[in-house]
Design goal:
Blueprint lengths: L2 H43 L1 E2 L2 E2 L10 H11 L7 H14 L2 H45 L11 H7 L1 H4 L4 E3 L2 H10 L3 E3 L4 E4 L5 H15 L8 H16 L1 H4 L3 H24 L11
Helix pairs in contact: 1-2, 1-3, 1-4, 8-9, 9-11
């Protein structure tokens, strides 16, 4: 490998490491305010006659305790900030070992979602890095790309007949490819009647975007929020359930399984962020 390629690879690796750190910081930032509010709720919930109610020390905190705190945390905006600070000072003045242990356990419960998010971020990032490195070395050694499973023109015309016969348009020109390059994607269904594809697009990408186009037409995708996330999950299930019929490669199946987990995690994060308890689950 040329020295310039090695230097480029080193810089890309440094950028990936930086992106991981930034991602972890952002994942933590999302939870800081929530944890702070729940800690304040702790003092609001367990104060009694201007003193901390020490009966809480008789048992370790549970998930039920945390659920109650979250409900109280929503009401904190209605509570006088000075009184909240006084309650915190009351705790600090106690200095009891038992209280400190209880608080440590409580903090552990509060940080579980943040730790889970950080793990998912690391898992996703490392997998992407592995794929990039695998591809880099494959290119250097002249090995065929494992994800290369293009659909033929005849097959594309056959599977998209329902789409094109109902005023659907498939675009593969240079401008469309530049748009796909910009977003780093293989293909894209812009709505129910327009799809951008690269030349020699992978089978999975073709079937995925045709399925998305149908979802647009059926009114399943109506926004970029919950409906979009649900549609992505439904589409990954469709690809996996019909992998043999669609002639997907092992690599495409592996990538689809990973994508399904990522979209499910994104939907759960959407529900958590918006405080939605009535959660949708895929049912075939």
């Amino acid at each position: 490998m040329k020295a310039v390629d090695e230097k480029r690879h080193m810089l890309e690796t440094l950028k990936q490491d930086y992106d991981i750190n930034v991602g972890l910081e952002r994942a933590a930032d999302k939870h800081i305010k929530r944890i702070s509010a729940e800690l304040s709720a702790f003092f609001v919930a367990h104060q009694k006659d201007d003193h901390i109610d020490t009966s809480i020390l008789r048992k370790l905190p549970t998930i039920h305790d945390l659920t109650q705190l979250r409900k109280l945390a929503k009401e904190l905006s209605k509570i006088n900030e000075i009184n909240v600070k006084k309650r915190k000072m009351m705790y600090l003045s106690m200095g009891t070992t038992d209280m400190e242990l209880y608080m440590q356990a409580l903090m552990g419960l509060m940080m579980l979602p943040m730790a889970n998010n950080a793990f998912q971020l690391m898992e996703k990032t490392l997998l992407n890095e592995f794929r990039d490195e695998y591809q880099r070395q494959s290119d250097d050694l002249g090995i065929d790309k494992p994800e290369s499973n293009p659909i033929t023109d005849a097959e594309l015309q056959d599977v998209s007949e329902w789409f094109t016969s109902t005023d659907g348009l498939i675009i593969t020109d240079d401008e469309s490819v530049r748009m796909l390059d910009y977003f780093g994607i293989e293909a894209s269904a812009h709505d129910g009647y327009t799809i951008s594809l690269r030349p020699n697009t992978n089978r999975a990408a073709v079937y995925e975007e045709l399925y998305h186009a149908k979802q647009y037409r059926d009114g399943i995708i109506v926004d970029t929020g919950e409906s979009r996330l649900k549609a992505e999950i439904m589409t990954q299930h469709y690809l996996l359930d019909n992998a043999k019929k669609l002639k997907l490669s092992d690599y495409e199946i592996m990538s689809t399984e990973k994508a399904l987990k990522d979209w499910e995690a994104d939907l759960n994060e959407f529900y958590n962020k918006n405080g939605i308890s009535n959660r949708w689950e895929y049912d075939n």
